[in-house]
Known about the structure:
It is built from 19 helices and two strands. Helix content is 72%, strand content 1%. The protein has a domain at 28-146: Serine Threonine Protein Phosphatase 5, Tetratricopeptide repeat, CATH 1.25.40. The N and C termini lie far apart (110 Å). Strand 1 (348-349) and strand 2 (356-357) form a beta hairpin.
Amino acid sequence: MEFDVTALLLGLPIAFALGWLASRLDLRQMRVENRQSPKAYFRGLNFLLNEQQDQAIDAFIEAVQNDPDTSELHFALGNLFRRRGEYDRAVRVHEHLLARGDLKQSERDRAQHALALDFLKAGLLDRAEAALSKLEGTAHEQEARLARLAIYERSRDWAQASAVAARLDETSHGSFEPRQAHYLCEQAQASVAAGQISPALDLLNQARNLAPQAPRPLIEKAKLLMQQGRLDAALQTLMELRQAAPQALPLAAALLAKLALQAGKQQEVKDWLIQAQEAQPSIDLVQAIAELEADPAIARQWFVNHLQREPSLIAAGKWLASERFAEPRNQEVVQRAIDRASGPLMRYRCAACGFEAKQHFWHCPGCQAWDSYPARRIEEL
């Protein structure tokens, strides 16, 4: 069979023309897609800046459909879902990212961190903990440890919280030792509730050694020693507050007075409290001094002395309650009015969130901050 060169020569221009036409069609299609994707992306950003989250989500979904390989669009979409409270959709987006085989390790770690935040916001603490644990050794390690610490505090798993706080103490610039001391005190309280006094004392001693300036271990230890009838040891423990944490003395004033009365050491403790009162006046210190004063007239005078140094509706009410006037009925009316007005001033206020409470908290029930309650009443702030 003879080879037809003429047909070959005629076919080459046709093949070239078809190839050129196909390439032009591909380029046109690519340009159309490239125009659509940025347009949807910027439209989504515009909606987001105008706080139109529903329209922003629709625009980002369109952008993801046009360019499914862009991870940044997935992250933006997942974060939007989380902010709207649509945690299941946020989880699906971030799990889809983690399932991709072409994702760089840094972006995979970022997706793992975002997934952990989804679980955390949704209240799925066990799944959040598992997701956060996988971030050890990554760029998100510090944030993950702090989040795990919050989970353990929330679930009152103090042993795990202590372990994570110890790691944070090794790697971060701040100190977590005061917080670890609180964890040991919490474990001591659990031991006391279970009737295990000796292990509780050991835990409180550990807390004292770990954070020598923390007042809570001393106060908790004194309470425990008092329960055991070791009054002298309890008194000596509380008196260490003068050097360790003088600002916390008002919190221990009532307990000091009670111990002094039981141990028969009223004069010694009263003199010690008077020195503390002169250095830093407090209505709680004045109340404790008055309770230890044998002469009622002198006891009442302590409230007057405090009023001369600092105006105090609380001190005025306590002085009025101890006085006897010619018209008891009128005194009762005035007393009731003062007590009602001074009641809110007797509370403690969290310095972090402003949550007020009748009792002092080491761990704020409002914002979960530690040591955010001053030892002084609202009136004294």
